[in-house]
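BUG: 3D viewer hangs when loading the predicted structure for this chain

Environment: internal workstation, default settings.
Expected: structure renders.
Actual: progress bar stalls at 90%.

Input used:
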Amino acid sequence: MSVPAEVQEEKDQVKLLEPSRPPMSRTVSNTLNPGCRSEILLQAKKNTVLKSHGRPPWYDEDGKAIHDAFVIGIAGGSASGKTHVARCIVQALGSIPTVVILSQDSFYKKHGPEDLKLAFQNRYDFDHPDAIDMPLFAACLADLKAGRQSNIPIYSFKDHNRLDETKYLYGAAIIIVEGILALHDPDLRDLYDLKIFVQCDSDLMLARRIRRDVTERGRSVDGILEQYLRYVKPAYDNFVQPTSRYANIIVPGSDNTVAIELIATHVRRKIEDRSRYLRQHLARIGPMDLDLKEPVNRCFPNLTVLRQTPQLLGIFTILRDRNARRADFIFFTDRLSTFLSEKAMEFLPYKPKRVTTPVGSTYVGKQLAVDHVCGVSILRSGGPLERGLRRVIQDISIGSLLIQSEDSTGEPLLLHLMLPTCIRQRHLAARSFVFLLDAQIGTGAAAFMAIRVLLDHGVPQENIIFVTFIVAAAGGVRVLRRAYPGVRIVCGALDPVLRESWALWDTVALGQDQGDSEKRDVGTGTPTAKTREEAESEGRKVWVVEPGIGHIGECL
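Structure tokens produced before the viewer hung:
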């Protein structure tokens, strides 16, 4: 049984392909080595996510998106080389943020019984524009372009129908859309920043189809020619080739190295023009006009600091002591995280509930009035707060975000995310409450990105509760409250100083201590840079909260 070649590809699901490196690595490679990239591209299917650099900030200090993802539309006849051109563009880009290659074949319409019968008889025209759900295609692409999450349909070419499940996609900085009808629909064309048409000789396209279908699919030459004459050639003449007039660039279907280099140069320039230096802006805002002896909520209603009782001050004394035993540090971190989670629970909505006590009396109390509640931890420093949250809310679902600083600029990069189901589905996210966990808010850059990710998924600001050990009064929290006034922040202490420093100057070679092995391995050992000048030339700028508690994720 034969079906159009554009349909028969093995593209049943989107594959996540990442360079082989530990997911928790502290260093982020800016480029994939050529061998690794070639292997990834050879394994890639039509719908592909390629991650080589991470997504940089795409918003300003007010939390507003300042640019969309860069979208490239590639159209052309069947077997003209569209997928090859898309992959070559990715190769030529080199060090790039996250790229999504999206195929139109995911958006074939859901078929009824009559269409299914025709499809299994090889009598359904999959090359006609009516076979594609163009409104859904445009809606999903618009979400991805705007930086929002999208759920892409999965089409089963074995069953000739769309499946009930979808594939979750988020975080694209560059989107490449390829398909024979990629330039046909005006709503799709309006979303493209660059439109490409792959022009190839008809004889060459037919020869490629015959070789491919005979070699890879075991078809007969007679069947291939019948299919080509019945559906493929008429569709190309009537619908595909006329869309070439909308293209910004016509790329030859072979010997197109020069054209691809020109396209890659243009895309790189556009991405560089969109670069932001968010962290430096946040670090220079100056201290909040707060008297730390006065109630903080008078100046910042959405910032809640735990009451500074002697017990809490005793806990912070142990956590701030660089000579504290590691076992003590872990124990009191768990205690503090539990206190913070219990305080954060006060900001969830409750409703009255009437119960009967064991002695037969009636008691009117409260119960949670939420559809979904979950946690999201910013790796790795958010991990210590997870234990306290699990103690307070039984069986809570906790996801994670991996946000790390870019080596040369210090800007936060979104490298990985694994979110609970209630956030991945936008209709559920609108009714979900999320505890966002991180050890501290310094410049606020990671907090900004994490909150922006939740907003992109449809979580309301008022449903986000940021739980943290320490907030720097001189840091990004001042801008954070202006950008996201609905987000509540619950912290254990408000530290007054945010000091500018250099990563290598503050970094030490661990494991060289001669003292008690039970003590925390923080702030001891030998600096990796011999002089400050050496650190400034080799390192990147960082901002340190003082008095602070150090890099808590590395202490546990």
